[in-house]
Amino acid sequence: MSSLLQDLRYAFRGLAKSPGFSAIAIATLALGIGANTSIFALVDRVLLRTLPVRDPGELVLLRSPGPSQGHTWSDGDDDASFSYPMYRDLRDRASVFAGLVAEYPFAVSIAARGETERAAGEMVSGSYFDVLGVPPELGRVLTPGDDLAPGGHPVAVLSHGYFARRFGGDPSVLNKTIVANGQTLTVVGVARRGFPGIQPGRQADIFVPMMMKAQMTPLWNALDDPKDRWVQIVGRLKPGLSRSAAETALVSVYRSLLQELLPQMKGWDEKVQQRFLERKVLLVEGGHGRAVLRSDVGTPLLSLMGMVVLVLLIACSNLAGLLAARGAARQREYGIRLAIGASRFQLLRQSIVECLVFAFAGGALGLLVAAWTLQTLLSAFPADDGLRQLGVSIDPRVLGFTALASLVAGLLFGLAPSWRAARLDPARTLRGQGRGCASAGREVIRFRQWLVTAQVALTLVLLVCALLFVRSLRNLGAVELGFKPESVIGFSIAPKLNGYPVARTTALARQLSENLAAVPGVRSVSAGKEPLMAGSTESGNITLEGAQGASKEQQNARFNYVGPDYFATLGIPLIAGRELQWTDDAAAPKVAIVNEALVRRYFGDRSPIGSRLAVGGHGEVAPDTEIVGVVRNSKAAQVDEKDEAFVYRPYLQHPTIGELSFSVRAAGEPASLVSAIREQVKRLDAQLPVYDLRPLQTQIRDSLVTQRVIVLLSTAFGMLAAVLAALGIYGVLAFAVAERRQEIGVRMALGADPAAVRGMIFHEVLRFLLIGVAIGLPAAWALGRAVESILFGVHAADPDTFAIGTALMTLVALAAAWPPALRASRTNAIEALRSE
Fold first, then answer.
1. Sequence ranges of the domains in the chain
2. 363 contacts: CB under 8 Å, gap ≥ 6
3. Average pLDDT in the 127-150 region?
4. Where do the H-state alpha helices sit in 478-563?
5. Per-residue pLDDT at 333
6. Which value, in Å, is the radius of gyration of the alpha carbons in the chain?
């Protein structure tokens, strides 16, 4: 222990004696470790952290891919949605589960203590908290007894976060009532602190029994409809039972349930029926919760993690080169210590301790870099984004990662120079003069050249990947949206959550549209059921009269229910026919407008005006909706979506319309209408929350926030790598020029001109530049293939990107080589020869 303390004291004295070197080393490590820590904090919360429940390894998520009919609700994975009757039958008949729970997220309008606000709710089966193993923080949780009869138990459990935020952590809220979606509920408990629900990134505020479905979504019950798939199922396997064994045991049970359901599947031939009966229940690892957020940002996070690891490797190789040069300058010191009795192990240990002091100092400073980076990164995302909802911070797990990264970094950059110092020949070293013997200097140069070659290769990988992401974002920005977002502001309301029936909702929508249209500075107003560019649309089968080019099983489209002047307000060109009107209400004949993609796919060159369609297929429906107009293709859910067949129907004819997203086109700056919009809604219903109020261009930017953050970070990492590589190239060439000063002097004395000397130095840099490029390009292609799924309009092997990346790396290398080359060309031959 005393020896270790002595080594530490010596290391700290070394830091103080070389403040410039120490500052460069610690700052370099702080940037590399800080970047790794910040990205790891996100990776840990999104990909690695398990749910805060009992024995999360026993949890499984249920999926069942295959043909189906009816309505499907999902938030990204249709195969993970089941009907409630199917959940009930699996719960009662499948013996492989210790417990099975169902959940469904829903929007809820909560009125309490004189205020109404929109919150995130989860309808859950009565066994939810018991199966997951989540105890209450206060009061009690829901039990199977709360979930026996439809509407029989109007109770609720609050999440701890919502309890603290909305009610100030006041325990007197227990056994008090709140009004949720017009239904009075009694608060019976608060869930354990830190439990947000089963989907990371979606923080539940309130948990309600599943049997309250009709009251929570009054326009859509579906508890008894076996063809309406809307619940997600989580199971806990019996102890000791593997997922594969459980899947095998479920085959017979599930097949019998499908056989009972088959008679309700109309219009299928025998092949489709057989495929339906062959569907299986797949059990997916569920300890990390539902994978919606992981599916969205998992690949981008892993790609960024790979990039910051490369940045740290470049930093470590840079420091290894600096330590090698420092070791060459200290060879005489090492030789003396060996000559007077120090063991090689002692020298090795002391050198490694010095490196670890650098590493942990860099790690400590890196925590500050990570905290700032993480805060800046998360602030770039909208407040309701899943990553923001996770509440990522520098917690003990992240601190442990930082300590491990610091240790590994210290060993990476310090082991080779320390080993070289420990195996010096003291007699040979003491016979050398000045900075050490020439052979040792040449060995250091070779070692640093290999390090710089590695830096070139790694930097090229980062530059190419950054360019791929930049080109992808540029391509997204150049996409023709099909509408004009300028001067448009959008907002949403959900009257159904305040107990509005359909007729009252449509009356409110018309009145609000007229009132907003009368506001000074407003050009036009319209609304639609689905918000624009929010990542959600509705789709399903359609039956078309006189269609061609697709069988009835292939006829499908996406839907939105919109109001009068919808296309004029958004600037979507009307090609043929007419817009929807206020007279297209529930009492009028059904009408629809379709887009070009639908016409091209199903009608070819024929005009669809006057033809009829119906929502549904497989012979279940007769076309009863007249096509009265055709509009240009436009993006609906996201920028990178393909043009698909689309049907627009009047929301006035929607049988269960309960929420609407308005678009208001302004004469000037749309943000100036924010207060007027809130005032107009408040005048009609002061208890009706307004949400997602923002300009349409902001909504589009928010939809691309992940891509923009990737571009920002990858560019920053590429630039940091280029700077580190430039420093490494400069360092090795400057050291080489100093070591070869006499040789350069001889060359100039024999007649070499300055240009020839500069050419000699550039020849050196081009040699390891070519080797680095030869290694880096295949590696960049491999990393590009790994992230190709999140690129848009550019391939991993894009030749232009590779050429630009190589050119940038060449410029960085030549810029770093210029100062040493210039210094070498200005060498005074006489002074150089006298110095030895």
1. 1-49+296-436, 56-287, 441-479+704-836, 495-688
2. 29, 30, 33, 402, 403, 405, 406, 409
3. 95
4. 502-517
5. 58
6. 34
